[in-house]
């Protein structure tokens, strides 16, 4: 099979190498000539995954047409801010039968679009998928056993991606809720920033567990309000990705949160990272959307206040802990029922 990967960052590089390990003929597109030369000569991406030996069958190029022309599957691993621009550049070289898969866990500001929706708008293709799951590129590089989801309502897309990437260290599960899988992948980045911040402030595992579980409740509430299926969040692309990103120092979003918790400002935290941390933008877009649609998201709103409103993280944590009592699993006991019942309790003041 011929596979194309657009993007020369850590995830694009990992995906290209998995497909090559799996026997595919792989082309990878990136803009940086020097990096193209390094990948082709040394089979190494010194900028994004310096310690990783890339399968020599991966051929890098700065030529978009050459990269995609023969490909059966095209993976797009470009940060959300540049995703549409790159798609517009590649569109003239695409064919209708090609499978187009986003690996990007971000949201486009204009219209709150997920990346596979951007692919749909730009190409009108009927073979679109989203790849999402607990997939830290640096761990894939070490061939740690990893699983992901190819989410698509198109069976051809699911089958091709499972065939292209499924191998002894990378297992590809199928899902048909593309929107839910992508939404989970994007939302979890918000809570990974909060988890990094909590860790830097010296909070423990009880705190992390509370944060992850309440994050799942908040993500589900958001999904339901948007008409999406919260059941998808029980899979690898939801809770799976939430766990890894909220727990690992390899996550860029976690690292941004950690730096903020140590007292660095946002600008310097991003600069030191030198890679994309989609959650920084996602928290803004999600909070805006939640405000407009009146969706209760105290964690995301609290994080927003810390990141952009100058509220100290410790003060925000205290305010959240002392906020209105709430329900554990809202699908079983609604929040409203809990707050109504408070009238029955004795006054503790
Ligand atoms: N790194 C990881 O562990 C994982 C990343 N992802 C997702 O993959 C997406 C891409 O991430 P990474 O590869 O990790 O990012 P990265 O920060 O490592 O690299 C981004 C790449 O995109 C390129 N790029 C940026 N703007 C561009 C433009 N206008 N035209 C062409 N190329 C451009 C950069 O030069 C760089 O090669 C992100 O949205 C992320 O959420 C998903 C799963 C795991
Ligand atoms: O999505 C990821 C792991 O599944 C990568 O997370 P970061 O973008 O925070 O590094």
From TrEMBL:
It is an enzyme of class 1 (oxidoreductase). Its main location: cytoplasm. One of its GO terms (cellular component) is cytosol. Sn-glycerol 3-phosphate binds at residues 105, 133, 188, 241, 251-253. InterPro entries: 6-PGluconate_DH-like_C_sf, 6PGD_dom2, G3P_DH_NAD-dep, G3P_DH_NAD-dep_C, G3P_DH_NAD-dep_N, NAD(P)-bd_dom_sf. Transmembrane segments: none annotated. NAD(+) binds at residues 7-12, 137, 252. Substrate binds at residues 105, 252-253. Residues 177-317 form the Glycerol-3-phosphate dehydrogenase NAD-dependent C-terminal domain. Pathway: Membrane lipid metabolism; glycerophospholipid metabolism. Keywords: Cytoplasm, Lipid biosynthesis, Lipid metabolism, NAD, NADP, Nucleotide-binding, Oxidoreductase, Phospholipid biosynthesis, Phospholipid metabolism. Residues 2-154 form the Glycerol-3-phosphate dehydrogenase NAD-dependent N-terminal domain. GO terms for biological process: carbohydrate metabolic process; glycerol-3-phosphate biosynthetic process; glycerol-3-phosphate catabolic process; glycerophospholipid biosynthetic process. The keyword Cytoplasm applies. The active site is at 188 (proton acceptor). The keyword Nucleotide-binding applies. Its EC number is 1.1.1.94. HAMAP family: NAD_Glyc3P_dehydrog. Catalyzes the reduction of the glycolytic intermediate dihydroxyacetone phosphate (DHAP) to sn-glycerol 3-phosphate (G3P), the key precursor for phospholipid synthesis. Belongs to the NAD-dependent glycerol-3-phosphate dehydrogenase family. This is Glycerol-3-phosphate dehydrogenase [NAD(P)+]. It comes from Salinicola socius. The lineage of its organism: Bacteria, Pseudomonadati, Pseudomonadota, Gammaproteobacteria, Oceanospirillales.
């Amino acid at each position: 099979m011929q596979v194309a990967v657009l993007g020369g960052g850590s995830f694009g590089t990992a995906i290209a190498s998995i497909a090559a390990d799996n026997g595919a003929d792989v082309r990878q597109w990136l803009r940086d000539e020097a990096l193209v030369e390094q990948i082709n000569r040394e089979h190494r991406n010194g900028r994004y995954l310096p310690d990783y030996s890339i399968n020599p069958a991966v051929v890098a190029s700065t030529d978009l047409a050459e990269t995609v022309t023969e490909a059966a599957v095209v993976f797009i691993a470009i940060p959300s801010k540049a995703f549409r621009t790159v798609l517009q550049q590649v569109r003239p070289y695409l064919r209708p039968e090609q499978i187009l898969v986003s690996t990007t866990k971000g949201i486009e500001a204009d219209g709150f679009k997920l990346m596979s929706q951007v692919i749909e708008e730009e190409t009108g293709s009927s073979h679109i998928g989203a790849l999402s799951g607990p997939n830290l590129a640096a761990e894939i590089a070490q061939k740690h056993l990893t699983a992901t989801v190819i989410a698509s309502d198109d069976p051809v897309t699911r089958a091709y991606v499972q065939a292209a990437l499924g191998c002894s260290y990378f297992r590809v599960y199928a899902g048909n809720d593309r929107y839910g899988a992508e939404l989970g992948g994007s939302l979890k980045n918000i809570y990974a920033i909060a988890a990094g911040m909590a860790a830097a402030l010296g909070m423990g595992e009880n705190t992390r567990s509370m944060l992850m579980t309440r994050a799942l409740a908040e993500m589900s509430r958001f999904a339901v309000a948007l008409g999406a299926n919260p059941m998808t969040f029980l899979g690898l692309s939801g809770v799976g990705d939430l766990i890894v990103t909220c727990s690992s120092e390899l996550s860029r979003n976690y690292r941004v949160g950690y730096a903020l918790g140590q007292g660095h400002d946002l600008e310097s935290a991003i600069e030191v990272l030198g890679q994309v941390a989609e959650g920084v933008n996602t928290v803004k877009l999600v909070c805006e959307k939640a405000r407009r649609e009146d969706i209760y998201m105290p964690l995301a709103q609290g994080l927003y206040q810390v990141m952009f409103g100058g509220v100290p993280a410790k003060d925000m944590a205290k305010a959240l802990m002392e906020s209105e009592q709430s329900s554990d699993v809202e699908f079983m006991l609604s929040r409203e029922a809990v707050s109504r019942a408070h009238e029955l309790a004795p006054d503790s003041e």
